[in-house]
Structure formats: structure tokens, C-alpha cells
Amino acid sequence: MTHPTANTPAPSPCDLIIKADVVVTQDDARRILTDAGVAIKDGLVLDIGSYASMETGYCPAQRLDLSGKMLMPGLVNGHTHLPMTLLRGVADDLPLMEWLESHIWPVEAHLTDELITIGAQIGCAEFIRTGCTSFLNGYFHEHLTGNAVADCGLRAVLGEGFFSFPSPMFKTAEDCWQTLRGLNRQFETHSRVRTAITPHAAFTVMPEELIASFELAEELDIPWQIHLAESPMETAVCLDKYGKRPIELLHHHGLLTKRTTLHHCVDVTDEEIEILADSGVNVVHNPVSNLKLCSGISPVQKMLDAGVMVGLGTDGASSNNQLNMFRDMGLAALVGKVRHEDASAVNAQSALDMATRNSAHCLGWPELGRIEKGCPADMIALDLAYPNLMPVFNYVSHAVYGATGMEVCMTMVGGEVLYLYGDFKTIDINLLRTNALQASDWVHSVAER
């Protein structure tokens, strides 16, 4: 490096400079930079531009050469139930209510803290390996998932799930309030873990308890998330119980606001889409789970056209079998075309937006899902040497239609590398494999009772 002259300012110090063949920024202009560099300091993107300009302008403590790689924002999973990796493959090929009531809930009733922790750790490892850096979760004993996330370096928004009927965790919905307050206190100063209020669904939580939980979300100033309009069967139950469709029910009680994130929204009408758009809610599309449970295909393009903020999620590994956002991203684009009978519907850029910027809004963390000055340095790299990514005509197309997730060779959160070329930096993957085998024996024994 040349020495500065009187007219040339000295390079500024930074923690790391990354070199990459291409950077898909996902900034407001959706810039794609080639021969690019990213400077990182204190866990944030300090600058981005040509690699030559980064080398001239900054003096890094470290360098990371990702030549031959495509750098992009870490994917953001807008809806999952992380510890349900324990139930991957336990009850396949069943409709939603039979799957839940006859197979999933009975096993969950016997889960221990140790098992939930193992399930969360497995999910974290899968996210790191397949390029997901942050997620919105809903499950039980969420402090255990929070501890796993804190240890492995990911970001998460955690929601303790509850019902109106007795569950293994809470006899009533109100019994959950103290737990929710405690979870919020535990992580209120954590830089990577936040909380949300998480009633299960409009057909499993009574309206007065939905309202009370929303008031708690407002008091704590955190997101409020719920499964909604997931299937025609859910709609039928809501009509029978309350005389209103799910979206109509929440709208009637003033629960559709910018604080609200709705998961699924499969069985929705054009009029309801207008309500969603006018209220400013967030919607998370879960294409694989919806297909596997035969719940239907959400009218995503109609929602996007109406101005609804639509993110993307995997749902849990028991109704998806993977926590691979690349698979859901590609399928979101494909089934969107079939749903709308239009090959241009849910195009590649829309799908990538859903998996990054849009899902970040669903988490209430809008600075995620982009590589931009001042934003967290959460990013992943795809190895362009994989045959399925050759040749390159369109980088966004490759990310959505060509990539499988297995091309991820680097995962970073807040400037810290969590995975690099097969090496998990924050997880003992061999110990996790051993624990997973032991957990599978337990699940198998319970499922067969």
C-alpha cells in the first residue's frame, strides 16, 4: 500500500475487508457490484464499493478473500418453530389438523428442556449451513432457544406460544403473560435476540385473550405474530365459533396494525387483501409447509400488487422437513406463477426481496436483509464454482432458481464468521450429531406409544 501524501488522507481503520467477485446488495437501488469489497467495523457495514477503493480507503485488521464467490445478505426466515427439528419426518403426508392433533401435540407434551435445547441447536446449525442469519420463532420454553441462538451467533425474535385451552406449558393464556414478561427482560439488552408476543391462531385463542396479548405487545413495544387463514378448515372453524372469517375477526378487534405479522394467509379473499394492505400488517408466506400440509397456495402476487409487505418463512422442520430458505425462495416463485397463472408472477427479484428485506420487516428489524452502510454485517457467500451456478447471466436468478443452499461457503452475523468452507466456528457439530441421535431415539419411542 502506498504511503499517504499531503493530499491523500490516511486509510481509516476497520476490522475486516471482504473481497468478492460480486455483491448482491439488496439495498434500495438493488445494486449488484462486481470486483467488490465490503469494509466492516464494530459489526456494521462501514463501506461498500470496488475492492480497489476499499483497499485504498481502509486499513483492516483482517482480510477475507472470497474470490470466485457471490456475497449477498443473510437470508431472513420470517416464520419457524426451531426446536421442531426434533420432529422432522415424524408425521408426514397428513393434513394440517390431523398432523397437529394426532401426532405433533402428543409428542410435544413430553418434551424436556434438554430435548428442546438440542432441537434448537440442530435448527441453528441448519440455518448457519444454508445461509439464514436471522429468524422469527414461535415455540415453548423460548429462553432455551434464545440461549442456543446467543451461543451460536445468529439473530432471532422469539415468541412464547400459547393457546386458550390447557397446554403442557400453560393452563390458560393468561398464565403465559408472566413468562412473556420474563423472556422480554432476559433478552432486552441482548444485541442479537429480541422477543415477540405469539398467540397460536384465531381458532385456538379466544378473542379476549388475543386482545389482551396484543395490549401486552403494545406495552412492551414488541411485534405480535399469529398463524392466520392457514387453510379453509381454519376459516370454517372461525365462522362456526365467531361468525367471522379469520382476517375479519382480527380486523373487527383492531388487531391488524403495523405491529402485526400474520403467518400463512392462504385462504384470503380480494377484499381481505385490501384490508391487509390498508392496515399495514406484515404477512409471511410459507410455500413448502402449505404445500406439504395441502393447505393451499397463498395469493402472494395479489398481496404484493396491493402493497402488502410479504416475507418468507420455512415454518417448522416437522411440516417442511428442511429449514432451507433457498428451497422456499425458489418454490415461492414457482408456485406463485401457478397460483396466478402468470409466468411473470412472483419473479426472482420479488422472491429474493421476500427472503431478505421483506422478512426483516416481518421481524420488526428492517435494517437486516441488505448489505448497506450502517446496517449489520450479516452476509453469506455462494461458491460460484458449483456446476449448477455455471454460467452466470443473472445473479438474482441464480440465487432464487439455481442455488440449493449447499453452495453457501460462508455465513457471517455482525461481522463474525459462523461458518467457513465446511467449518462451523460456533457449534460443535460432532457433539450435536451425537445428541441428535439420542434425541431421535426418544422421539421414536414416544411417537410409537
UniProtKB/TrEMBL annotation:
- Its Enzyme Commission number? 3.5.4.28, 3.5.4.31
Give start and end of each Amidohydrolase-related domain.
70-417
In this record, what's one Pfam family? Amidohydro_1
- Domain of life, per lineage: Bacteria
Residues at which substrate binds: E108, H200, E230, D315
Cofactor(s) listed in the protein's UniProt record: Zn(2+)
Q: Cofactor binding mode, per the note? A: Binds 1 zinc ion per subunit.
Q: Which reaction does it catalyse?
A: S-adenosyl-L-homocysteine + H2O + H(+) = S-inosyl-L-homocysteine + NH4(+); S-methyl-5'-thioadenosine + H2O + H(+) = S-methyl-5'-thioinosine + NH4(+)
As for what it does, the entry says: Catalyzes the deamination of 5-methylthioadenosine and S-adenosyl-L-homocysteine into 5-methylthioinosine and S-inosyl-L-homocysteine, respectively. Is also able to deaminate adenosine.
PANTHER family from the entry? AMIDOHYDROLASE-RELATED DOMAIN-CONTAINING PROTEIN, AMINOHYDROLASE SSNA-RELATED
State the family named in the UniProt similarity comment for this chain. Answer: Belongs to the metallo-dependent hydrolases superfamily. MTA/SAH deaminase family.
Q: What is this protein called?
A: 5-methylthioadenosine/S-adenosylhomocysteine deaminase
